[in-house]
Design brief:
The structure is a single chain. The protein is mostly helical. The protein has one domain: ABC transporter involved in vitamin B12 uptake, BtuC. It has eleven helices and four strands; from the N terminus they run E-E-H-H-H-H-E-E-H-H-H-H-H-H-H. The strands form two sheets. Strands 1-2 form a two-stranded antiparallel ribbon. The chain has a two-stranded antiparallel sheet with strand order 3-4. A hairpin with a 4-residue loop joins strand 3 and strand 4.
Amino acid sequence: MDEIFGVPIQAFMGQLMLGLVNGSFYALLSLGLAVIFGMLNIVNFAHGALYMVGAFFAWMLLNYAGINYWMALLLVPLAVGLIGVLIEKFLLQWLQGLDHLYGLLLTFGLALMLEGLFREAYGSSGLPYELPQVFRGAFDLGFMFLPKYRAWVIVAAVLTCLITWYVIEKTKLGAYLRAGTENPNLVKAFGINVPLMVTLTYAFGVGLAGLAGVMAAPIYQVSPLMGSNIIIIVFAVVVIGGMGSILGSIVTGLALGLIEGLSKVFYAEISTTVVFIIMAIVLMVRPAGLFGREK
């Protein structure tokens, strides 16, 4: 069979794989947003900028310090998480108890500042990041060639998402996190340091953005604009899946990436807006999102 629905199989599977790669980044980024909103009730508009910072940190480590991709996968999320600690301790903690709009405006301002700083330092054109040696080349699947690095991105992103979901939903640590959000005074009575837990949760959420940035660097050009180009789609993913829903962010991110990829095969003109069309339909039918809880 050389065609699927009248489309050459190579083109069909190529766009399907591209959609799955994009969906892996959507899932990973929206997961971080969902963790932060679900646990802390903060709409973190700086998430895209911190994703961009993660990609730039990986590029700097390689070009200025000779630190390779594998070490960057460990160091960059920690560095971005540390930035998250500073943001939460010195800025966001003063907004506790206030309307979500204040946190959104603050993080939106931070995003503009970070983007402006990197644009001033490196310009708007993208910078290449060298592909790790082990991932050069492609797997021959018979009907298409699958680049090794893209296969790695899909597997690593899905595993990270599933592990995060399991920790938050199925372990005692996750139960403490959820309880600390709903009833912090009760959790404090058990001797748990709730402010520290809040800070570490925010750091973990933005650390996921940093991890996504490292993984994106060899695929996309490392650019100050890469965060602002993706964050609107990621917010749409979170809204469709349900604000604060961990599972919703994972499933919706992967699914929308596939839908976006397939739309380029069958009707390319709609590929840039299909996510927002789906969001509008979902909000009309189920305002809380597909996996969200109706209040």
